[in-house]
Design brief:
Elements: E1 9-12, H1 15-25, E2 29-33, E3 41-46, E4 49-55, H2 57-62, E5 66-70, H3 74-84, E6 97-98, E7 104-109, E8 114-119
């Protein structure tokens, strides 16, 4: 059995919050959009990664996912995000930190999602 990609579904009360986080802050692009429909939805992509965003208040209240994005240039990612969207830096890991398991990490959070940026 072989899998090629993991595609998370993320639910927001207001899909525009997700667009600000993933598109504006993390530079994902909108590859498919039903944002103006009765049930707003879109597919975001970046560097071979894909995320499905949905606007659904009931499901958004039940889920608070956390993901890890692995990079080979954590300092560059941190510098860009800390300058452009510092409001997303997680208060518990707001700077690049060498963790006991050997990875450098910092964390982000918005109203719905937590993301750890990691470099091994």
């Amino acid at each position: 059995m072989t899998f090629e990609k993991l595609v998370p579904n993320i639910f927001y009360i207001d899909i525009n919050d997700g667009l600000k986080f993933f598109v504006d802050c993390l530079n994902f692009t909108i590859e498919y959009s039903e944002i103006k429909s009765a049930k707003p939805f879109c597919v975001l992509e970046k560097d071979g990664l894909r995320i499905n965003l949905f606007q659904n208040a009931a499901l958004a209240k039940e889920h608070y996912p956390e993901f890890r994005l692995v990079t080979k240039n954590i300092q560059e990612v941190y510098d860009q995000i800390s300058k452009s969207h510092s409001e997303f830096l997680h208060p518990n890991l707001k700077e690049v930190t060498l963790r006991p398991w050997g990875a450098k990490e910092f964390a982000l959070k918005d109203k719905q999602v937590g993301i750890v940026i990691q470099e091994w």
